[in-house]
Give the backbone structure.
Amino acid sequence: MTDAPKDASRVLIFDTTLRDGEQSPGATMTLSEKLAIAALLDEMGVDIIEAGFPIASDGDFEAVSEIAKQAQNAVICGLARAAKGDIDRAWAALEHAKKPRIHTFIGTSPLHRQHQLAMDKEQVLRKIEETVGHARSLCDNVQWSPMDATRTERDYLIETVKVAVASGATTINIPDTVGYTAPRESAEIIRDLLANVPGLDKCVVATHCHNDLGMATANALAAVEAGARQIECTINGLGERAGNTALEEVVMALKVRRDIMPYHTGVDATKIMRASRLVATASGFPVQFNKAIVGKNAFAHESGIHQDGVLKNAETFEIMRPEDVGLSANALVMGKHSGRAAFRAKLKDLGIELGDNAFQEAFVRFKALADQKKDVYDDDIVALVEDERTSAANDRIRIKFLRVICGTSEPRSADLTLTIDGVDHQTTAQGDGPVDAAFAAVNKLVKHEGVLKLYQVNAVMDGIDAQATVSVKLEEDGRFVTGSAADTDTVVASTRAYVIALNRLLVRRGKNAPNTTISLVG
């Protein structure tokens, strides 16, 4: 079996946000967040969703299994090392999917053979034959990857791919695992493989690029021009170290420049901004302002010359329309007098779907926000809804009450009540400022060894009444977690983000084990 499209100009999009993206330090996502992201990826036309690494933990297994049951259109893929136990575990998670795929891999470069595997070339070849064959005996859609392919001797890389194809692999993925290659070399590798591996033309050839040298998108597109027909990527370019090829970049590059790259994807680009916001909220990784396609400044113009040109004809300084990626104008159409019907219509316009209970909770928060802000923008509503989703997904520790005292003469202090596993706990603490005092109060109630590594505040919109979106990152015993929250009160947003990060720390400790104990300070 192969999922190769009959249209030779069709490029498959393989999204690994939930696997490679979640491996970013601090990007741990809950099961409900993963299900929401997978549902949106499926809806927007992503061809393959790599849902996780089933043998890594019970939490990963459950996520892959639930996504496999939920998916309607996309192929659902699980990662497995070159070991029968890994492959069996992946298949157990995937077997209920309408379209399952096992993705198995092994390191092939000299560095990986010597230092990671302690295997010689022949041993690696035998392991490929054994494990790809085993995967194919379970599932007729098998992807194989030679990890660190771009630093593997070219003749040996060809040999490994020959064995994988002969053993039943239907997709051959070439990973630039450490972001080492450049566009010309990326294309040369694909051409060499297609020219020298019998039967490879019957398989899908894929490219998986990391962004360590800032060339991931260029390398992926060069591979496509050379014959690859699957791009592995993530929303917002999320991923280990400097990240992966960004889905939004390759999709829009192929859409905008089809004159020189005559290829296309099946992704509904108008859902890109919605996906970007959802992943940023779930992962706790805010999108940099100048990020291509989805950054806050991607369609902003401050220069007088640019503004004048755009007003006369948007194409003078814009190569795509904001609405092409699902970015609507921030019209001032919502306020404290807006009712449920108007709010529901606005959510629909923004591409947000909520169940009845979630809608009612979001509407209550919207009315509270409208009482605080004179003007409520689309971005305010998106931030509010996504913040509500994040809080609902991480509710073992919740803020019930917070009051801070700050100023030039008063001691900075915070009175805090946390609801922890349904029980209220109250304390007071002092700090260098209101945020420090609030964090100190949390620490007086919840015992942990997390060290604050990042504290970042961004405004959702301009103005003194703007919502602040706060992101924090904590490290505990080598585990990184992030949290983000939005509120018109920066201290409230900061404290909520900190509490969300602590909830994620519980997930990271137990990998979604519901009985993980919360230690209280005595």
About this structure: The chain has 16 helices and 14 strands. The first helix runs from residue 31 to 43.
